[in-house]
Amino acid sequence: MFSTFSSTHDPLDYHMIWHQRAILEAVDAFNSNDLQALDMGLISQLPCQEQCHWAIYVALHKSYRDDYPYLQAILIREILFQYCESWSSQESQRQFIEDLGIPLQWLHEAMAVYFNYHGDLPRALEHFLECENWQKAHSIFMTSVAHALFLSANDSETWRIATSMENHKSEIENWDLGAGIYISFYVLRSSLQEDNNTMAELDSLDSKNAACKDFLGRLNESAAVWGGNLHVDARVAYSKMADEICNLLLSDTSGSQTRDDQLNCYDTVFSAPPSRKTFDQPIYRMLLQFSLAVFQKCQVSLSS
């Protein structure tokens, strides 16, 4: 009766005998532990027919076994990982799986691994964030995603992703030299651009210079820590950050500032991460001219 040939010519078609077995089990005709092969046969058959959601349904309805207490969870996670492309591409299947009460974290984890394997790193990053794998999400963000967003001027998305990990920074290695760099950049740039009460601590050139020097030092340290893991465009992004901060700092060196304050700012700017053809860039040509002029004035003052 429980042979596949009793209901079909297909030796892999278990669906009819599974229903027969459910009826007989309901009336205590036999113990379900005796029919593990039947259950596993149906579970393995359904995904091959792109019916992953029903395979998970069957796995959920397997009876608990003391000798294999985690069997259901193992089966379900294996289906999710192995057949991710099938169930994730069909909204009806995905919704059915969610309605069965399968933890969303399991679904996101399977999709994160799938997209990471196929090189779709932005989508993998989103799913690693959803399944709360903060370390892996941070690694992908720094090595593959952040610089592309930053260089395309997609500041809102860069900020959104970085701040979404900030509450879990204690779980992330090198946070301050990773995504924390981008958050610090946006905060510092805003403070240099705006003159408001909330940023009163940066109201003097000396305090602005100290904040910029600290940021540029961390930027250099970040580039050293990540090393070869950083894409060449990430280094371009770092140079662009440094240029923006340096430009804003130098814009405050004119006026009634002392020569020492000005020289201190120039010294800070020279500590910035260099980019390709650094000294061909207008900002550095201007910086060299200004620093030389200030130095000459200092020399004249000392000799007079």
Characterize the structure shown.
- The chain is built from 15 helices and no strands.
- The chain is rod-shaped.
- The protein is an all-alpha fold and about 300 residues long.
- The protein has a domain at about 1-100.
- It has helices at about 15-25, 35-50, 50-60, 70-80, 85-90, 90-100, 105-115, 120-130, 135-150, 155-165, 180-195, 205-225, 230-250, 260-270, 280-304.
Rounded to the nearest angstrom, the distance between the terminal CA atoms is 112 Å
Shape: rod-shaped
Order of helices and strands: HHHHHHHHHHHHHHH
Strand count: 0
Residue ranges: pLDDT <50 for 5 or more in a row? 196-202, 276-280
Task: Please report the number of helical segments.
Answer: 15
- What is the CA-atom radius of gyration, in angstroms? 30 Å
Average pLDDT number: 81
Q: Biggest sheet, in brief?
A: none
Protein name: Nuclear pore complex protein NUP96 C-terminal domain-containing protein
Organism: Hibiscus syriacus
Domain Nuclear pore complex protein NUP96 C-terminal: 2-114
Pfam families: Nup96
In short:
It is built from 15 helices and no strands. The chain is mostly helical.
List the helices and strands and how they pair.
Layout: H1 15-26, H2 36-48, H3 52-60, H4 71-82, H5 84-88, H6 91-99, H7 104-117, H8 121-130, H9 134-151, H10 155-166, H11 179-193, H12 205-226, H13 232-250, H14 259-270, H15 282-303
Helix pairs in contact: 2-3, 3-4, 3-6, 4-7, 7-8, 8-9, 9-10, 9-13, 10-11, 11-12, 11-13, 12-13, 12-14, 13-14, 14-15
